[in-house]
Write a structure and sequence with these properties.
alpha/beta; 7-stranded mixed β-sheet; two-stranded antiparallel sheet; 15% strand
Length: 359
């Protein structure tokens, strides 16, 4: 067998290098989006309309030279529109980067980027040992990043659009029900529901002390009396059937023992109760995920940095990861945990699949 190296095609080489450096460009653009959000540059652009660097620096109280270079980058990346050296956010740019009340607001996902990337120093050890890092490894800023990333959708759509799609649920919540949100994070979904249904009582469970600290702060701000947060490692779900309604939003795939969590929810839910599962819309095979999900590369990266890492943060963890809990697996795991009914709910969410599950 010849050990001659296969020839490198110069055109293919150029294309491949373009792909790799495009990825580095994406990382730089992400870093700039983080700064734009943190420094209020998008909010200022949304108010100002088309501006040059001097006007934007003036509005934000920042140094013109730094603002100018940031604008050049954002224009070159296509994040901002530009005419000569005047820059503007498109209406879509305003929704995604400036308007925190819009359900498509996404700048929050960049909030925890420095902390997410900081664990790169620790992950080589995880690759060797097999054991990952829990969400608390990202510190308080990581919990705030997840909160800001997911909150706009919950605030805008959970109560008016999602809950009414679960048969019988709204009537139950209006009459007064016991509700648990497992893996509640900073509690935005729970508190949104608690405000909407004052006759019901709401319990959030999480293992992240940083997320729970955010949840307590959000509870104080919300001023509601019908919500409580529990550190799930010390105060787990009750072992008797107490809850009429349970939710899990984007957390089963992050858990070291999702099957155990499903069994615990089965014990804690009433026989006439209902569980709304939201988890990442995944396909049963790697090939399908790559073919059908334009965000697959981003999601597998997120998985290594956080989701799979969390799901392997104890020895023997299930390690499902971001795209690991596809519908067939969810259905069979839930059947095994003792749930008889499993109905997918099509909410046309860009990322999540929803299932209505009953004992
Ligand atoms: C991606 S975050 C989602 C948080 C929240 N549901 C939201 O939508 O903002 C996943 C959460 O699951 C929590 N988690 C992981 N394992 C858990 C477990 N065994 N019990 C409770 N929460 C857990 C993490 O601490 C983290 O807050």
């Amino acid at each position: 067998m010849s050990d001659a190296k296969p020839p490198v095609d110069p055109d293919a080489l150029k294309e491949y290098a373009k792909l790799v450096f495009g990825a580095l460009g994406g990382a730089m653009t992400s870093a700039m989006i983080y700064l734009g959000d943190r420094l209020g540059l998008y909010r200022a652009l949304a108010e100002a309309g088309e501006v040059d660097s001097a006007a934007l620096a003036n509005r934000t109280g920042l140094d013109e030279r730094w603002v100018r270079e940031w604008l050049y980058q954002q224009g070159a990346a296509g994040v901002l529109e530009h005419r000569g050296e005047r820059f503007a956010l498109s209406p879509e740019g305003k929704a995604v980067l400036a308007d925190e009340s819009h359900p498509a607001f996404g700048a929050g996902f960049f909030d925890g980027l420095p902390q997410q990337l900081a664990v790169l120093d620790r992950l080589p050890e995880s690759f060797r040992s097999g054991v990952g890092l829990p969400y608390d490894a990202f510190g308080p800023e990581g919990a705030r990043g997840i909160e800001r990333g997911l909150a706009p959708w919950f605030r805008a759509l959970l109560v008016p659009m999602v809950l009414p799609r679960v048969p019988g649920l709204v009537e139950m919540l209006e009459a007064g029900a016991a509700v648990a949100d497992v893996g509640c994070g900073a509690g935005v979904a729970l508190l949104t529901m608690a405000k909407a249904y004052p006759k019901s009582e709401f319990h959030g469970y999480d293992i992240s002390r940083h997320a729970l600290a955010r949840a307590e702060a959000n509870l104080a701000d919300a001023g509601v009396a019908n919500a409580t947060f529990h550190a799930a490692d010390q105060h787990p779900l009750p072992s008797e059937p107490r809850f009429h309604f349970v939710t899990t939003f984007d957390c089963l795939h992050d858990m070291t023992d999702p099957a155990g969590a499903m069994r615990a929810i089965r014990r804690a839910i009433r026989p006439d109760g209902v569980w709304l599962v939201a988890d990442i819309k995944a396909r049963p095979s790697y090939e399908e995920n790559v073919e059908k999900n334009p965000m697959a590369a981003m999601m597998y990266g997120t998985s290594v940095l956080s989701c799979m890492s969390s799901a392997l943060s104890e020895p023997g963890g299930a390690g499902l990861g971001t795209l690991g809990l596809h519908e067939d697996l969810a259905r069979s795991m839930l059947r095994e945990a003792g749930f008889a009914s499993f109905e997918p709910l099509d909410l046309r969410h860009p990322v999540n699949a929803f299932y209505v599950v009953r004992p």
